[in-house]
Amino acid sequence: MPRHVPVALEDVDLSDIDGFADLRGFSQLDTLRAEDPVHWNREDAPNKGFWAITKYDDIWTVDRDPETFTSEKFVNIEEVDDDLMDFRRSLLETDGTRHAALRRLVQREFTPRNLMKNYEAFLRELTKRTVDAAFAEAADNDGQIDFVDKISADFPINVLARLLDVPQGDTAQLIAWGNELVANTDPDYAKVRFDLAESDEYRHLPFRSPTVQEVWDYGQDLKSKRIGGDGGDLVSMLANQMPADGVPLSQQDFNNYFSLLVIAGNETTRHAISNSMLGLIEQRDQLTRLKEEPALVPDAVEELLRWASPVYHFRRTATKDVELGGKQIKEGDKVVMWFGSGNRDDAMFEDPYSIDVTRKNVDHMTFGKGSPHLCLGNNLARMEIRLMFEELLPRLADIELAGDVTRVRSNFVNGIKKFPVKVTAA
């Protein structure tokens, strides 16, 4: 079902994961923006339902106001038992001074200045190696590769390995862990499906997944070897720094922070690169424009991030009764911001389903616009995407689909699993 085929309002159900197959989620979000932009979405018991916020301005209102719409009650649609919240709580599920203190532990590493100084040359060489290896494989296979496997997954995970200072040989395991956690509703990835009753046994763990314990064990081993050292990697920073609020990281704090880094440092950038490349193949005039005018790439990254929208949503919880979009939201209600919908809002972006690599002032919501929870790695992701297209596009005489594109079964991550292409080297 193409994304432009309308869905009737009575058929909209954003909690139905299969309703997002083949980009049907965007069709549902189109309907809500047009007909019911602050929409009560029922859920099956034991969940209680949620408000779906789909217009750009309303999403921004929610995301920049943590006093009214808190993250402390968790940021995915799942309703976590009160007695499990502290055990499962990560940086994402904190607000206020604690949130600021936790961010500050690693924030300096992700400033544009530090990235330019410490990472850009390394990342450009890494990008070249990724592209070289992909073209070498294509040359041995009639020009065919899987774009996810050889390019968009290979590159970000090697960046993450550098940030964590772990062996390159561990990257395949890091990719697998990220898939199992973020794509925990996809039977191709999840050991235990989040959306099935069997996951109740693991409800005390993030993502309701036994995989997270493997990630924690791996992180604890790294930490034990770096306590007291002077390393500049992210693990050493977490192991040896005191948060600015004077409250040390507990072992569980470290566990949850580490698993968040494993996911955020891999999944989002991978899916952004994949969706961007697919969009450029589908809208070939924009691909041609970038190839002919490579100076457009740095600014075009913002448009590609808007188009890609690698994360569909994040949740907040109302701390008091409040009106939004003419609806009465009650204290304790789940309020879900659909970033993918905000990025397709035609009140903000003219012709939003078209990529325009010359679009100006692309104030997208991909990283959490104007929010205290603005993605820590947003500058790194921008750099990775820019470098990939700066290095890849000049090498391409042509690229076309060589089979069906397969998407991750999820209403959280807008991800691509399989992306067969045929490339012709320039």
Structural description of this entry:
- It contains 17 helices and twelve strands.
- It has helices at residues 24-35, 56-63, 85-88, 96-107, 112-118, 120-139, 147-152, 154-164, 171-182, 211-226, 234-240, 251-264, 267-282, 284-292, 297-308, 339-342, 378-392, and strands spanning 38-41, 50-53, 69-70, 144-146, 313-318, 322-324, 327-329, 334-338, 396-401, 406-407, 416-418, 420-425.
- The model has no long low-confidence stretch (mean pLDDT 94).
- A hairpin with an 8-residue loop joins strand 1 (38-41) and strand 2 (50-53).
- It has 426 residues and is an alpha+beta fold.
- Helix 9 (171-182) crosses helix 10.
- The protein is globular.
- It has a single domain (9-425), classed as Cytochrome P450 (Cytochrome p450, Orthogonal Bundle), CATH 1.10.630.
- The two termini are 35 Å apart.
- A five-stranded mixed β-sheet has the order 1-2-8-5-3, with helices on both faces. Strands 4-12-9 form a three-stranded antiparallel β-sheet.
